[in-house]
Amino acid sequence: MSFEGFDRGALEFLSSLRENNTREWFHAHRAEYEDLLLEPARDFVVAVGEELRPAVPDVNADPRVNGSIFRIARDTRFASDKRPYKDHLDLWFWVGERKRGPGFWFRITPDELVLGGGMHHFEPPQLERYRTGVADDERGSVLLGEVERLRAAGYAIGGERYKRLPRGFEAPAERAPLLLHEGVFGWVQVSPPPGEAFSSAFPRFCADRYRPLVGLVEWLAPIP
User: Do 115 and 20 touch, CB atoms closer than 8 A?
Assistant: First the structure.
């Protein structure tokens, strides 16, 4: 089926789940979760993939749970927060063969929509390749240009963590802050979620905000 929009009750469900975050409540309302969020999300994932594929041919839009759709149950084994469920819907459209590589993410809550792209965290070999790219005059300049362009377009840039420049890597002053990153990603936030979320226009609305991130995602593609 084609995506016709989320029902407004989807956000009401997430708001109720936030207030009643127990297994007993969720099991009693599982059918609402499936009808209001899970099933429309499957169609939405397919539609976003179709919108993105002309610009990103190797984007993955897998309409399955544990594909592009994150499980709503939280893994609380090692978490101090023991709430069993997420009070938001998370989606992930990865690029290339590795799901842990670069891609585009989606999160909708009762209060906001967040759309972003890039990589949140580099594993040690990825971090080494990322820093080598930043230090390289050609590739590093391309990355800096993408970051500056995104900031000028109103995107926030995240991933900076470290306080000291890593040993063995040098870059001009304008690129040096990029060496402090443990990941690099851009995102935009829409509060409250836009009216398009409840219509067939939503996949294009999201894809229009992913497209400016394509250059950053493509820069990251060789890292995995």
Answer: no
List, in order of start, the domains of the chain with CATH numbers: 9-220 (3.30.930)
Q: Cβ(86)–Cβ(190) under 8 Å?
A: no
pLDDT digits (tens, 9 = 90+) for 187-211: 999 999 999 999 999 999 999 999 9
Q: Is 168 helix (H, G, I), strand (E, B) or coil?
A: coil
Output the CA–CA distances (angstroms, integers) from residue 49 to 28, 86, 190, in the order listed: 33, 24, 21
User: pLDDT tens for residues 157-167?
Assistant: 999 999 999 99
Separation between Cα atoms, residue 110 and residue 14, nearest integer Å: 6
Alpha-carbon torsion angle 100, 48, 109, 195, nearest 10: 160
Beta carbons within 8 Å of 27's beta carbon, 6+ residues apart: none
**Cα–Cα distance measured from residue 195 to residue 8, given in angstroms and rounded to the nearest whole number:** 10
Q: d(Cα 102, Cα 121) in Å, to the nearest integer? A: 10
pTM comes to 0.95
